[in-house]
């Protein structure tokens, strides 16, 4: 039970970090574009983590590297595709559609009626908190919806591959290699789209903040968390992310929480409680 609680706390800490990092990313996308933002985020995260991780090339099997490759694809795809979806969709709708990925993963791994109830509550809560029900869906970009859905698939792949990497690689070493490989692919694309603006001091500073708060810190926390909880639990707990975003908007940006959003937050908290209660009984 102690290990499960530790894992859940790490997930919640990662969510908080991502939301604050997202505020800085929102100011960076208009200046360097989606590809430029992801390129800065991943490359600078690799630089920040390198002296901490001290990665080694030798001592790993081909199977270990295949797991890192899967995590690389998941990281690059999840971040890039989601940022492109934000160029076409309202944030609340994009987050809701993307969450179908980990929610589907949770449903696939469910084992009881309580699990299904938790999944249903989390799904309803995410929809309410995001504000998707108040958006005119007839005016939405179909391409944007598809991109957000694909980002959700990558999110589910990320959770699975991160768990496998965490089981076979020491500490954060496997994660670092995945971030490095992602940046090698993304940086040239970011330079092509953003040009010299990508390395402007202001953009580099903002990119460094985004790298730490949206990549280096949360991915490290989740890597450790997925050593203590399964992907079904992770899929449900990440439903708290839109609720955290709504709360941060209220506290920091002065955005009002609507009644449906508060109800949705209650649903998500109830879902997390059901999952934790199930794990407590299994101990």
Automatic annotation (TrEMBL):
Residues 144-276 form the EamA domain. It is a multi-pass membrane protein. The chain crosses the membrane at residues 35-53, 65-85, 91-109, 116-134, 140-162, 174-198, 204-221, 233-253, 259-277. The keyword Transmembrane helix applies. It comes from Cutibacterium porci. Keywords: Membrane, Transmembrane, Transmembrane helix. One of its GO terms (cellular component) is membrane. InterPro entries: AA-Vitamin_Transporters (IPR050638), EamA_dom (IPR000620), EmrE-like (IPR037185). This is EamA family transporter. Pfam families: EamA. It is found in: Membrane. Belongs to the EamA transporter family.
């Amino acid at each position: 039970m102690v290990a499960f609680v530790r894992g859940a706390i790490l997930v919640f800490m990662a969510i908080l970090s991502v939301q604050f990092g997202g505020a800085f990313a929102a100011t960076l996308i208009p200046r360097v574009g989606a590809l430029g933002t992801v390129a800065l985020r991943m490359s600078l995260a690799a630089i920040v983590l390198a002296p901490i991780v001290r990665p080694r090339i030798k001592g790993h099997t081909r199977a270990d590297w295949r797991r890192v490759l899967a995590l690389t694809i998941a990281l690059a795809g999840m971040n890039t595709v989601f940022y492109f979806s934000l160029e076409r969709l309202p944030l609340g709708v994009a987050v809701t559609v993307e969450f179908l990925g980990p929610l589907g993963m949770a449903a696939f791994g469910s084992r009881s009626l309580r699990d299904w109830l938790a999944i249903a509550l989390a799904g309803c809560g995410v929809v309410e908190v995001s504000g998707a029900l108040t958006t005119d869906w007839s005016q939405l970009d179909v391409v944007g919806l598809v991109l957000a859905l694909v980002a959700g698939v990558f999110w589910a792949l990320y959770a699975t591959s991160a768990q496998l990497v965490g089981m076979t690689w020491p500490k954060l070493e496997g994660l670092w290699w995945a971030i490095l490989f992602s940046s090698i692919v993304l940086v040239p694309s970011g330079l092509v789209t953003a040009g010299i603006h990508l390395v402007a001091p202001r953009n580099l500073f903002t990119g460094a903040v985004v790298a730490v708060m949206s990549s280096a810190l949360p991915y490290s926390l989740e890597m450790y968390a997925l050593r203590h909880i399964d992907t079904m639990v992770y899929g449900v707990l990440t439903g708290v992310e839109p609720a955290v975003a709504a709360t941060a908007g209220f506290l920091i940006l002065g955005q009002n929480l609507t009644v449906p959003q508060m109800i949705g937050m209650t649903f998500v908290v109830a879902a997390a409680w059901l999952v934790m209660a199930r794990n407590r009984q299994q101990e």
